Amino acid sequence: MNDMIELHGARTGNCFRVAIALEETGLAYRVVLVDLANGEHQRPEHLALNPAGKVPTIVASLRGGQRLVLSQSNAIQLHLAERAPGRLLPEADPARALALERYLYFVTDVIAPSHSGFSLSRVPASGNGAELLNQRSLDAIYAADHMVGPSGFISGDRFGLADIAALTMLLSVEQKLDWARIPRLQRWLETVRTRPAVIRGFKAFDPS
Ligand SMILES: N[C@@H](CCC(=O)N[C@@H](CS)C(=O)NCC(=O)O)C(=O)O
Q1: Cα of 205 to ligand 1 centre, how many Å?
Q2: 52: how many CB neighbours lie within 10 A of its CB?
Q3: What CATH number has the domain spanning 95-195?
Q4: Intervals of CATH 1.20.1050.10 along the chain
Q5: Three-state secondary structure readout of 131-157
Q6: Is CATH 3.30.420.40 what the domain over 5-88+198-202 is classified as, yes or no?
Q7: Rounded to the nearest whole angstrom, what is the distance from the C-alpha of residue 17 to the centroid of ligand 1?
């Protein structure tokens, strides 16, 4: 069985997080570009992998030869963390539990309202719902400055899932943030955005 993981995706935040996680683990992968603008995510071959017609999706083989087709960017990142023990998540508690807490903070309190705000902003006559959700996401970022510890990372002593979740999100609102309110996150961003694996992850869906 081929150990190469296939990553079906496009240049979107959810896909970049998976590509960065793959790069950080060093697991072998190859990208299958899904052209969203041309509706490739709705074609039968993609729907056979992801019936919701979304990206990202990975196709991988497990020890013993079983095939794994997995969607949901966060389920994929957790799967990758388990395949590369200690690389994206500490292996033992309490560090592991605390790292999951920070990761899920960014997923549920920062990314989720931001995505909902984006969807709502496209609905005519939705009032100021989008604005409220976007502000809720920004407020959760302002509340996270203290999470950057002496190591310079968001949880524990190495770069991990929480850093990946925070990174794509903070970059997407970089121009909206008042950085004077979050000096630790500002220093953190300057460092993590230059990590070679992060740079490679952001280029993963560039046409070759
Ligand atoms: N909760 C899913 C969301 C997947 C998702 O919404 N993907 C977007 C791109 S980031 C997509 O495929 N959009 C195409 C569409 O909805 O038509 C995840 O985390 O993977």
Answers
A1: 15
A2: 10
A3: 1.20.1050.10
A4: 95-195
A5: HHHHHHHHHHHHCCHHHCCCCCCCCCC
A6: no
A7: 12
- For residue 8, the surrounding DSSP H or E stretch is strand 5-9
Question: Torsions phi, psi of 88, nearest 5?
Answer: -115, -15
Of all protein residues, the one whose alpha carbon is nearest to atom 1 of ligand 1 is 72
CA 63 to chain centre: 25
Q: What is the pTM of this model?
A: 0.96
| Atom of ligand 1 lying closest to residue 14 CA | 10
Per-residue pLDDT in tens (0 to 9) along the chain, 208 residues? 458 999 999 999 999 999 999 999 999 999 999 999 999 999 999 999 999 999 999 999 988 889 999 999 999 999 999 999 999 999 999 999 999 999 999 999 999 999 999 999 988 878 899 999 999 999 999 999 999 999 999 998 999 999 999 999 999 999 999 999 999 999 999 999 999 999 999 999 998 7
List strand residue ranges (DSSP E) for 67-107, in order.
67-71
- CATH 3.40.30.10 residue ranges for the chain: 5-88+198-202
